[in-house]
Every structure is written in C-alpha cells, then in structure tokens.
Fold this sequence. Notes:
- By secondary structure, the chain is an alpha+beta fold.
- It is 36% helix and 28% strand.
- The protein has helices at residues 4-13, 23-30, 129-143, 153-170, 184-191, 193-211, 234-250, 278-294, and strands spanning 34-39, 48-50, 55-58, 65-66, 77-82, 85-90, 97-99, 102-104, 106-109, 114-117, 120-127, 174-182, 216-221, 224-229, 253-255, 258-260, 263-271, 300-302.
- α5 (184-191) packs antiparallel against α6 (193-211) and α6 packs across α7.
- The model is unreliable at 1-30 and 307-313 (pLDDT under 50).
Amino acid sequence: MSDRRDRHKDRRGRATLPESIDPKALIAAAEKEQPVLVVLTGPQVGQRILLELPALIGQDPEADLMIVDDGAEWHHASVFPKGSRWVIRDLTEEDRIEVNGKPVREAVLDDDDQILVGRTVLRFEVHDPVEQAFDEAIVERLNKDHLTGLLARRVFDFELASAVVAAQRHERCCALIVVDIDGVKTVNDRYGHEAGAGLIADVGKLIGELVGEEAIACRLGGDEFGVLMPRGGLDIARALGEGIRASVERASFAHDGAPLDVTVSVGVAVFPSHADEALDLLRRADEAMYVAKRAGGNGVHAYAAPVDGPAAR
C-alpha cells in the first residue's frame, strides 16, 4: 500500500485543474491548511481529530482523543501550537511516546510523522480544505450504518467501552438498551426481504429521532438495535426503553400500502449493577431483551440474575 505522500500526489496529479479554478483561491486554501491526528491501529482505526486548539490524548473519555489502550495513561500526551508549528509533549513520568520510532519528551511535528501512544499508532497530517472535506465525508460514511443512518457498530462498541471506563472512573452509572423488532421474519416471508429491510430502516430512524442528545443509537446487526446512555441509571433507561416501545407500537408502518403491525422487545442493563465490563453489559441487555421477547414481545425487561446463578453485581 502506498503511503500518504504517494496518495496525495496521485490525487492532485492525475488530472489538470479545471480552468474555472482561480490559482489565487488555491493559494488562499493552502494557507488555511489544517493539522489532523489520525488513528492508524486498533479498534479506533480511522478516527481523527482536527487540531484547532491544544489537544489532550489519553484514556480519559473526556480527552480530545481518547485512546482505548491499556498501555496508555489517563493523560498521556498533549499536542499544542508553538509559533507556526505543532508540538507533542509527553505527560507521563517517563518518555512513553515515540515519534517515528524514537522516544521523546517533546517534539515538533512534521507532516506524516507517526506517533506511538501506548500501543496505538497515530499519524500527524496537514490537510488543505479540499482534503479535509474529502476525509470528513469518508469518515462519515464509515461511521454510519448504511441502512438506518445510525452509528456504525464498530464506533458504537468504542463508545460503549468509553462510557464504561468513564462511569467506573467517576463512580456513576451508565445504561445500555437493546431493542429487537418483533416479527421481522413474518414480514420477510409475506412481502420479501426488501420489505423487511425497509422496516428495519424505518424503525432505526425512529429510534434515532427518539434518543436525543443524551443517548447514542446503533444498529447492532440484523433487526437489533443498541441505545447507550453514558450517564443513565436504571429508572431513566427503563423509561427511555418504554418510550421506544410505545412509539414503535403507535407508529404507522406499511409496505406497498399494506399496513404492518410492528412492535419491539426491549432489554435494559446498567453498569455497575448488572455488569462491570462493556461486553458483559451488552450480554446482559441482550439477555433481558430475550426475556421480553419470550414473554410475547412488545415489552420492556430489566436484567435480573438467574435465581440459581451468580448475583448481579
């Protein structure tokens, strides 16, 4: 795979610029180049931040660039402007960042420099406005589910892990809601898979409208959705789950003019009452959802540990 310099030249050099483009405008655009940090490895690959103000890097979910990496410190490094350049500074007690393979305490960054933070590799890039707009469009497509417009699963998993880390650090709750559409198989069998996909898209969009700014919604896969409440307790999460259930039941869904009676089964689990890790929290919410589904669907159920199993923590 060619490096960014090769791609940069190829993108600029393949065709002659249209005559309508003013060379003076290009010069002005070049003067507005923006520095960007891009994650190259791990579960956050592709994530990027535009550097407009000094930025904090570390495990802190409130850092400008949170690194989900056990090798990273809570506050691991800072990046800040110094004159016309950008500088990275190690915030750990030891020299625990590397720039282009060399341990540093502080270093001036150049375009395409690679930075190691814990076990995560970042790249410092300088983008002109055209590049920045192109990259933002690509990132938006990668970060969204193509069917519903909700957050992509890989990004949701990162947000869930971040929320659990933050809740643990600040000794607060976070909640996860799992929503599954009842009877999609019946719709598929009667009207075809295109109708089923349309129904999933419509329900997903409705969920996205309902969750507001206090929650994050995602299509987990198939006809199942996840809703993360980074600061939610059980009562608040159950209320949101009930709101989703009731709204779906009231909504009018149809295929080619034929009305579809649609309901959902909803499961709720809360950190740290039901689980102390992100993956376990997802499992508990999923188990709760299946309890609601086995009870006939169109219901909301909060996780409860099995009577003969370990107690919920």
